[in-house]
Amino acid sequence: MIKQSKLRKSRSLQRIRRHRRIRDKIRGTAKRPRLVVFRSLKNIEGQLIDDDLGRTLVGLSTLAEELTGFNGDSKNPRVEHAHAAGKLLAERAKAHGINTVVFDRGGYKYHGRVKAFAEGAREGGLKF
């Protein structure tokens, strides 16, 4: 466990602090799991988590086999890649019988790749 005084020292620790604040307010269940997003410099990941059991139901990264040959044609291909990953995650969730989720932005701002991932998941059929 990280002390609260140390959390203000770096950007990554500030993000962890924001994520803890968000997690105090939202919770995923088996019927409505939590869609949590993790963003690195090059990739983005999404997981559907049942917090009651502490299990990951469905997970996906931009490193998945289905997305390895993805080529973006716009100015920002990572945003397009994130959008495609969100759509694919929604399709996998539909296959598991999941239609509605609670969105957890993971302490990141809701713009750019995080927003594109969420919009792709919405286009894929998830409701949140």
Summed up, what is this model?
With 128 residues, this protein is an alpha+beta fold. It has helices at 11-25, 77-95, 113-123; strands at residues 34-39, 44-50, 55-61, 102-104. 35% of the residues lie in helices and 18% in strands.
Structure description:
This protein has 128 residues and is α+β, with helices and mostly antiparallel strands. It is 35% helix and 18% strand. The chain contains three helices and four strands; from the N terminus they run αβββαβα. The protein has helices spanning 11-25, 77-95, 113-123; strands at residues 34-39, 44-50, 55-61, 102-104. The chain has a four-stranded mixed beta sheet with strand order 3-2-1-4, sandwiched between helices. It is globular and about 45 Å long. The N and C termini lie far apart (31 Å). 30% of the residues are buried. The model has no long low-confidence stretch (mean pLDDT 91).
Q: What percentage of amino acids are in beta strands?
A: 15-25%
In this structure, how is the largest beta sheet organized? 4 strands, mixed
Judged by helices, strands and strand pairing, the structural class is: alpha+beta
The spatial strand order of the largest sheet comes to 3-2-1-4
List the helices and strands and how they pair.
Blueprint lengths: L10 H15 L8 E6 L4 E7 L4 E7 L15 H19 L6 E3 L8 H11 L5
Parallel strand pairs: 1-4
Antiparallel strand pairs: 1-2, 2-3
